[in-house]
Amino acid sequence: MFESFYLFIYKNKKYPPFIRRRIVEDKKMKVAVVGATGLVGTKMLQVLAERNFPVSELIPVASERSIGKEVEFKGRKYKIVSAADAIAAKPAVALFSAGGSTSTELAPQFAAAGITVIDNSSAWRMDPSKKLVVPEINADALTAADKIIANPNCSTIQMVVALNPLHKAYGITRIVVSTYQSVTGTGVKAVNQLMNERKGVEGEMAYKYPIDLNVIPQIDVFLGNGYTKEEMKMVNETKKIMRDESIRVTATTVRIPVVGGHSESVNVEFEKDFDLAEVRSLLSKAPGVVVVDDPGAQQYPMPKDAHEKDEVFVGRLRRDETQPNTLNMWIVSDNLRKGAATNAVQIAEYLQKKGLL
């Protein structure tokens, strides 16, 4: 009886806020994961379970050759289905990590059926009609009308999470970033290449060159301006997420022989001067940020310490002594978690909490 009463007032929008919160928090929903067998898709399943997202039924979607196979979620087995079957099942939300071409084709079909899509590919990020969201920064822009929401690039996410509180305090004018990115950013094929090379075994190559005992200063294809697509993602996405087109960004993105975790050397110039102690305080209080910055004890963020964690780790904080109002910093995060799966799940959590699903 009481449950029927709550549902009635929820559907008819006649309820005080405390009742609405109770129903939204208790409401479970069908959730689709498109690309459920890939590195990021698998991590999405893990993060959904860890964060206890209210899933009433999981709908895993993968390529045709995987249909009928099973994935495990919270101790239960779920059969992989086609995209058409997933749409027919009417999930409330679909987390996509199946590549740009798949997202371009399928996301509008899911959205047309009233399903909210959170897409991890680059397909929709710079579409002016789509929101590009990092929850700690701009989730407030989301509405129930947003049926395709873009998840930013992994290297962009960790950088803006760390820079946003500093931008609010001092006003960023320019960012120079060099990345040191893990092979998991490329996928299973790249991980296999690295492991094969370490064992001295010949195998399929994800990269043109060996990656073990090497560094490759190219991520994605080169564009006409001499920058790679990955570098220009960082430039354009940073401005869109931080809602400030005046920020100048230049990037060099590099692949290194690390299995998990991206690292970034960031030089950031501000409009206003700053105090280093205040910078540390602002970062320490920022949501999703952990400061690891004790040079005397040789403590600083490293990919191995960020593994399987959702936070963005920041250290090596110091003034650029060559020009005023400029800070050097080192930023590390697990690229499969905060850089992809966790950020997508956090978007879904925000939508659920606000009653937008």
Keywords:
Dihydrodipicolinate Reductase, domain 2; single chain; 12 helices; Rossmann fold; 36% helix; 2 domains; 14 strands; 22% strand; six-stranded mixed β-sheet; 357 residues; six-stranded parallel β-sheet; alpha/beta
Task: Walk me through what this model shows.
The chain is α/β, with parallel strands linked by helices. It has two domains: 2-124, Rossmann fold (3-Layer(aba) Sandwich), CATH 3.40.50.720; 155-335, Dihydrodipicolinate Reductase, domain 2. 36% of the residues lie in helices and 22% in strands. The chain is built from twelve helices and 14 strands. The strands form three sheets. A six-stranded parallel beta sheet has the order 2-1-5-6-8-7, sandwiched between helices. It has a six-stranded mixed beta sheet with strand order 10-9-11-14-13-12. Helix 5 links the parallel strand 5 and strand 6. Helix 7 packs across helix 9 (229-241). The chain is globular, with a radius of gyration of 21 Å. The two termini are 25 Å apart.
